[in-house]
Amino acid sequence: MSLRIALLGLLTAYGSASGYDLTKGFERSVAHVWQAGHSQIYPELAKMTADGLVTVAAEGARGRKIYSITPEGRAELRAWLIGHDPSGPARSEVALQAFLLPLLETREALDVLERLKTHMEHKLAELEALRAAKQAASAQEGTSGVRFGDLALDLGLRQVRTSLQWADDAIAQLGRQATTEEGADPS
Amino acid sequence: MSLRIALLGLLTAYGSASGYDLTKGFERSVAHVWQAGHSQIYPELAKMTADGLVTVAAEGARGRKIYSITPEGRAELRAWLIGHDPSGPARSEVALQAFLLPLLETREALDVLERLKTHMEHKLAELEALRAAKQAASAQEGTSGVRFGDLALDLGLRQVRTSLQWADDAIAQLGRQATTEEGADPS
DNA sequence: GATTGACATGTCATTGCTTACATGTCACCT
DNA sequence: AGGTGACATGTAAGCAATGACATGTCAATC
């Protein structure tokens, strides 16, 4: 269901777009919020056309099909935004690793945490680059107010920073434990 | 793959357990980290038995099968913890709603944010209850140090708090925008 | 003229996951 | 004796998602 919504949202933002454009859109702006490859997008667009949520407005060069959203599509999107209670299945590989970490020896656990931290630093850098790019783009036009995707980007940035902090604190905590263990048990 | 890991992890923690026990375990402790119903767990246990990662150690009353982890299973779990780079597909319905929020009118967007906030407050309460229960349990025994699931619970709590903060700030920001709009356009 | 690479759209097999169906045991209460 | 509800294990249909396969156009470079 959510894939449909994401597509309808992008289509609203773009006015009209091809499957290819939307695939690129997923790689860029929405990537940190929802993911989908072209092999999922093309069939979904076909289904949505059959359901009357989008239409092929025009066909361009190289078999390019340009979709645009229909009133039914707009209604569907609106209804989801207003009425949908997010219950997204909590599935996080990072959290799972964190959960199981005490199964490892302290040294090994520290290594894993360091790797996780590096990973998060990369992600933070990506998101900050994205924000910088957005700000540069919006400075050119005189647009003001909250723009498409801004709130989600802010949320993403905050969450990555929180995760980083957690990793730091977890490393410190395990580090303390390791040294007291050494002191208590100098084998 | 991650389901296998979660099962191996729980099995290590419990020593040995039936499919039913593991299903309950998913509802309780791991719920905020990974989810799975019994219809996914039973077949997976069968496959893992075939692959030699677990064995049926005993059969109890009511057809109860008690599984325990094998050395191969332990190795698999260890290898994943140490070597797996978490790349978990970023798919969050909350973030998607946040992303698309500017498509709504300010008033409607504020309503959605309030609902999200309530939702997050419930989740926060759940996690805090879980933490309280854990602390009570560990106070009875004299266990010290970092326990199974503690780090993940801490991460979860921090992330929910961050999300709540974000919601509050987003509400404030949209609220300001709404009042300036009224002032500029008193139709 | 040939190759490279971005553009552009699709299918298919497999795996993961959800929901519903289906069956049966055992303890306790009435 | 019958009902309820926790215990216990499975199967099957169908949707969602991934990764690999497959095909073809067009512009620019070599």
Automatic annotation (TrEMBL), chains A, B:
Gene3D superfamilies: 6.10.140.190, Winged helix-like DNA-binding domain superfamily/Winged helix DNA-binding domain. It comes from the Bacteria. SUPFAM superfamilies: Winged helix' DNA-binding domain. Residues 7-78 form the Transcription regulator PadR N-terminal domain. Keywords: Coiled coil. InterPro entries: Tscrpt_reg_PadR_C, Tscrpt_reg_PadR_N, WH-like_DNA-bd_sf, WH_DNA-bd_sf. Residues 91-174 form the Transcription regulator PadR C-terminal domain. Residues 110-140 form a coiled coil. Signal peptide: none annotated. Transmembrane segments: none annotated. This is PadR family transcriptional regulator. It comes from Microbispora hainanensis.
